[in-house]
Structure prediction request, 247 residues.
Amino acid sequence: MRVSDKLILIDKIGRALQAKFRYDEIDVFLAEYQIKPPSGDIGTNSKWVYSKSALKGADTSTLLKMADELGVEVLPSQYMAAAPPRNWVGTTNFRLFISHISKDKDKATRLKDCLAPFAISGFVAHEDVLPTLEWQTEIERALYSMDAFIAIHTEGFSASFWTQQEVGFAVGRATKIISFKMGEDPTGFISKHQALARRRRTAEEIAQEINTILSGDDRTAAQLLQAKKAKGLLPTLDDTFSDDIPF
Prediction:
């Protein structure tokens, strides 16, 4: 869940606690969720501020349970981001949504594999959504919880209803977007940005450049650095791959 969404949820829960309970009852309610009352002087005689101060360190799953018990409305973006797709559950890696058309899923999977050594976990719908899971829901979860978005512009990308919706979602979230040109120019809202061109480079070389782009962008640099530290990785890597996919 994004920090801004979490703050909104904490505010709503604080309002609900203020309306429903006395101070001592708030303490009892919080204790049931293993949350301690705020320590020290919070500077105001407000149950709302008191509750928010206590909740500021609560994890997302706890906040969602509290919201459900109190009847607090949870926005789809808050819920989806808190429940990522299956392949991102528990990961400390940077989350990159890889948008592609179905006929080029091998290229998306190849790029995903080459990004892994940089602590970047790609989401490739045709690989990461299991047959037993609801297809659209898993994609929505990935879109809500991604740290950045890359579009692989192969021939036919702009004509795909699904990929254009994915691009629109990323634009609406103001997510960092990388357009990777592999035979087709970006169209629509993202056409104004310079695309990353293949130029006969290998997937490993493209992955290296994506890592450089994300490391140098204010929207993604801190998150990617944190992911690398969690994996004990150095800033630069020289891993090699080999398979029979011509990319």
